[in-house]
Specification:
Strand content: over 45%
Number of strands: 20
Radius of gyration: 21 Å
Mean pLDDT: 89
Order of helices and strands: HEEEEEEEEHEEEEEEEEEEEE
Number of helices: 2
Strand order of the largest sheet: 1-5-6-7-8-9-10-11-12-13-14-15-16-17-18-20
CATH superfamily: Porin
Length: 374
């Protein structure tokens, strides 16, 4: 049964009150852990027509047209506090500082939730939680855990919202050497994108399932929601009825990673649909990428191919592009790496791709980043 967000908050309060005595009994066993992560990056683009960005909806400018070199594309700093209260209760708060839609770097709360583990394999969280849209959603902001300087923008910019306020449940089942993890969520969120437009995402529900077997990990997910965005009201003049209110949006994702240790291959596919009746706003978009890498002691060279296509659209110049990337990762410390990456980006004819502030032609981007965790 779908739980309303307000009801979920009330349930969380009830759970906290009910668990207070148990948590107090286990106070001696309470533990706290502070950790952090960050990326110091710099990027250069040869384009003077548009800005390359890593977060299409939330970065107002990047590298290229605005400036030839930029540290804002990939740099960020995050901190996380995790508290465990006995055997069942835990809580986490994660704060991240990165370039925002208004060109500030003010910290934002990514996660702030309470978790109750009914068993070691079944748990429920209430509060601000991760939106698990993609395979690397949980670690997409933690550069040290990823092979690239940044996750492929063609796929990870398809739906850029990373969190929601609500509830989720996770159940893990082990059968021999196979581990299956299933999750369900319900929530809502409100975001402001570049240019100052507000988007209200309601009735977000999602399902995901991940299977792990030896070196293989495979995952599928689906999310559906209703979006209200006053900025879309202008499309009413083109035959769309109330485009600014309650627009249905859905995202499906499938991915797999094979990593036996010395080398790895990982890839994902995603498809989004944003429409109002028979009128397609932004159309039906399909995107995919594949990355392969080979580990040579502390060095990992890798190659990536990514693309996004839009077979149905009512918005000229929308996001269509292909990228070929080559990179090298050097793990020079046990908790830090240096990455160098070259991207050749080819937007579709007349398309902005995932650039901002202009319509680009073929563009080369060179990036360097130091990732660290503590």
């Amino acid at each position: 049964m779908i739980i309303k967000v307000k009801a979920a908050a009330a349930a969380a309060t009830a759970m906290l009150v009910a668990g207070a005595a148990s948590a107090q009994d286990d106070a001696a066993a309470a533990t706290y852990k502070f950790s952090g992560f960050g990326t110091i990056g710099v990027a250069h683009s040869n384009s003077k027509e548009a800005d390359f960005v890593s977060s299409f909806y939330f970065q107002p400018n990047g590298v290229g047209k605005t400036r030839a070199w930029s540290a804002s594309v990939d740099s960020r700093l995050g901190a996380q506090l995790t508290a465990n209260f006995g055997k069942h209760w835990s809580a986490v708060v994660q704060v991240v500082s990165e370039q925002q839609w208004d060109n500030t770097w003010r910290p934002g709360v990514e996660w702030a939730n309470v978790k109750y583990a009914f068993t070691p394999d079944f748990s429920v969280r209430v509060g601000r939680i991760l939106l698990p849209t993609y395979m690397q959603s949980e670690s997409r902001k933690v550069g040290y855990t990823n092979p690239w300087v940044r996750p492929p923008v063609e796929l990870y910019n398809l739906f850029g919202v990373t969190k929601s306020d609500g509830v989720d449940a996770t159940y893990r089942l082990r059968i021999g050497a196979v581990t299956n993890t299933a999750s369900a969520l319900f929530g809502k969120t409100k975001v402001t994108i570049s240019g100052g437009a507000d988007a209200d995402l309601r009735k977000i529900y999602g399902l995901s399932n991940q299977v792990e077997y030896g070196a293989l990990t495979a995952r599928v997910s689906y999310q559906n929601m209703r979006m209200s965005m006053p900025a879309l009201a202008g499309l009413n003049n083109f035959g769309c009825v109330r485009c600014e209110a309650d627009v249905p949006l859905s995202i499906a994702n499938a991915g797999a990673t094979y990593d036996p240790g010395e080398w790895f291959v990982t890839g994902e596919w995603a498809r989004s649909r944003l429409d109002q009746g028979s009128f397609h706003i932004g159309g039906v978009k399909s995107t995919a990428y594949v990355t392969a890498g080979y580990r040579l002691d502390k060095f990992t060279p890798y190659l990536t191919y990514a693309q996004i296509e839009q077979p149905v659209t009512a918005v000229p110049g929308d996001s269509v592009q292909k990228t070929v990337s080559a990179g090298l990762r050097w793990d020079f410390l046990k908790n830090a790496d240096l990455k160098l990456q070259y991207d050749r980006v080819r937007p579709g004819s007349g398309s902005m791709g995932f650039f901002v502030n202009g319509v680009p032609s073929d563009t080369s981007v060179v990036s360097a980043a130091v990732d660290f965790v503590f």
